[in-house]
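---------- Forwarded message ----------

FYI, see the Pectate lyase superfamily protein domain-containing protein record below. Original note from H. follows.
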Amino acid sequence: MMETLPVGRFQFKRLVAAFLSSYRTLFILLWIVAFGSVFIWQRKIIGAGISVSVKTGLSRPMPKMRPFAFNLTDFGGVGDGKTLNTAAFERAVLAISKLGKRGGGGQLNVPPGKWLTAPFNLTSHMTLFLAEDAEILGIQDEKQWPLMPPLPSYGYGREHHGPRYGSLIHGQNLKDVVITGDNGTINGQGQSWWKKFRQKLLNHTRGPLMQIMWSSDIVIANITLRDSPFWTFHPYDCKNVTVRNVTILAPVREAPNTDGIDPDSCEDVVIEDCYISVGDDAIAIKSGWDQYGIAYARPSRNILIRNLIVRSMVSAGISIGSEMSGGVSDVTIENLLVWSSRRAVRIKTATGRGGYVRHITYRNITFDNVRVGIVIKTDYNEHPDDDFDPKALPIVKDISFTGIHGQGVRVPVRIHGSEDIPIRNVTFRDMSVGLTYKKKHIFQCAFIQGRVIGTIFPAPCENLDRYNEEGQLVKRSTAQNITDIDYDI
């Protein structure tokens, strides 16, 4: 019942091999095939102010994924882009909630059209299905967005003290929720939110496009999410979350904090076969902020991210932190293409965070036109208040990078540990990155302990031990705490 994105594991490896085998011709083929596959399942591509729509004439029939199915129009919904449909969504969700677990729950079909709504809640054992050319539009009047208490692991709203705005589509304490479709769209219409944020006209933290809290068995698949007021999809303290075949879009500039997917104190998460181009991190794994996250004590763990094409001109393709005070562990990121971005993959933390980042595996990662490829930063000093514990020092260790390739990179590695927060047990193997900057210290390190296995390019910093391909020690580092960080390049 759900489509499979053509950017699969084997095709991705073939694309990367083609990318590496030629200077220009096969690189062009990479983009033709990779983005051609995106066009197949993404009916609308939003570029820099350009909108392209593909019409098929007839809409696909609605597949029935639950034994009971309803149409939004059955509850008074009007898809003209002007009529407010909040009550229709609420009546439909109420009808499904009355089914309970009986027969597997119910499905709400959103037909083609533009369905303006204020925020509404989901219920358990529910499928929200968006037809091709169906678009849910978030109302831009913030007075119609409810206020909610701050997240317990943050203490305050992320942007302002006090309450925060809720999300357009919200759920709490749910089980078995599916949001899917024939690549229908959920559009937060965030432009007015971004403008008011920049003008400092908002008194509360902006709300995500979708936020599901304290829930399990969540599937988001085969839809487009775009122009969120704030973070796009924020699963909070959830278990068993799958995001598959999803396009997430926002302007790459002037759309502040529009992260794509932010798993926060979540476990057993799979994010795969997605295209994400937004105004902040494409993905940011979090687990609470300073003393509030330490007290909440819910880690993010057992997370698999694979087969993605991502872009972030402001922040990074895949980030861990900086709010990671509950801990982050057992994360695998593989088969990833980061293009035209400021940073590719990043871990960020600071004194006062506490917690840990450990057992992180990066495998088969490709950079194209990225300013800084790999970043670990331990001085990301942004705090909810002044009451954080300066002795709460995070632990960062057991991180491996294997199969790191690409071109057009200014600084391939910048790992900035400190005397208080050293980076431990970092491994590099099979790395070859084409450079755009010819300066000596382009593989930058400070307070890092780890190893290089085999030959990598560019030459690693002196902080790392050298091993041959058979894993035999060749040269022991004598300067693990040496610093050659240069933020000017």
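H. also flagged this: Residues 109-475 form a domain with the Pectate Lyase C-like fold (CATH 2.160.20.10).
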